[in-house]
Design goal:
The protein is mostly helical. It has one domain. Helix content is 54%, strand content 10%. It has helices at residues 20-33, 38-48, 53-63, 76-81, 83-89, and strands spanning 6-11, 64-66. It has a two-stranded parallel sheet with strand order 1-2. Helix 1 packs antiparallel against helix 2. The radius of gyration is 12 Å and the shape is globular. The relative contact order is 0.25.
Length: 90
Amino acid sequence: MQDVRHPHVRVKLIGEDGNVFFILGRVSQAMIREQVSDAEQKAFMAEAMSNDYDHALRVVDQWVTADSDPEDSWNHSERIDCDVCAEGDE
């Protein structure tokens, strides 16, 4: 299984609207909340929208931690361990 690019970004999808634009919007909001860089957000959207619905869902799973409650506390070390985010903090 592939590592999640931004494990500290948590998005609840189960029980939510399955529309792809709704899903991408939820991920985008979570990325903003967790201070993912604009460049990373744009790269995510470009990759997610480059193909069909199933591809978009696979991209979501590759980029963020899906189906967890974003209100749950997360371990700060997850952000530190996120190589992409750590680079942006420097």
